[in-house]
Amino acid sequence: MAVKGLGQLDQEYDGSNLKIGIIHARWNRVIIDALVEGAIKRMKFLGVKEENIIIESVPGSYELPWGTKRFVDRQKKEGKPLDAVIPIGVLIKGSTMHFEYISDSTTHALMNLQEKVDLPVIFGLLTCLTEEQAFARAGIDEAKSMHNHGEDWGAAAVEMATKFGPQCPF
To answer: Packing angle between helix 98-117 and helix 64-77, nearest 10 degrees?
Structure first.
């Protein structure tokens, strides 16, 4: 049994003044597309304007930390700074240690990236043991009674940007 969602929110957050980036890997594209769509759907529900959701891609999950840093820097240099960014990737265990190395290094790099870019970096990396788990977490396999984690990431981006992002009052 899986515990779903972000839990009880202390309030609904207004994303109407936010600019949020999504940068996604292209590996496991069907799953990635569902997660990206879930994040966009939730952010739009919370008021983020479609034109303020900027999307970029990188080849794979390992490239997410560097790509995210450059994406944030580019947006700032162009005078269109982001309030939060959601790197989205999917790693599925295979028969070698590759999964463990990529999962661990990408997770730590994304965590450490927040201090470097001084923005909320939402952890949008699925690390699944099977393709079926990834489909369930992307809301594709409804028989497994899971929801789309991308929706959670979109909501987390709006909350974190509102509370702690560059536009916050402190």
So the answer is: 20
Record the tokens describing residue 121, joined without a space. 């970096």
Q: What's the rounded Cα separation, in Å, for the pair 20 and 160?
A: 11
Closest by CA to 6, choosing from 157, 118, 144, is 157
Which residue in 128, 155, 156 sits closest to 144, CA to CA?
128
Asked if 53 contacts 43 with a C-beta cutoff of 8 angstroms, the reply is yes
Model confidence over 2-59: pLDDT tens digits?
555 666 665 689 999 999 999 999 999 999 999 999 999 999 999 999 999 999 999 9
Give the 3-state secondary structure of residue 151.
helix
41 with 149: CB under 8 angstroms? no
Integer Cα distance of 18 and 147 in angstroms: 25
- Residue whose C-alpha is closest to residue 167's, from 118, 110, 111, 123: 118
User: Amino acid letter at 132?
Assistant: E
Read off the pTM: 0.92
Residues recognised as catalytic? 98
Higher pLDDT, 101 or 144: 101
- Does 144 score more than 70 pLDDT? no
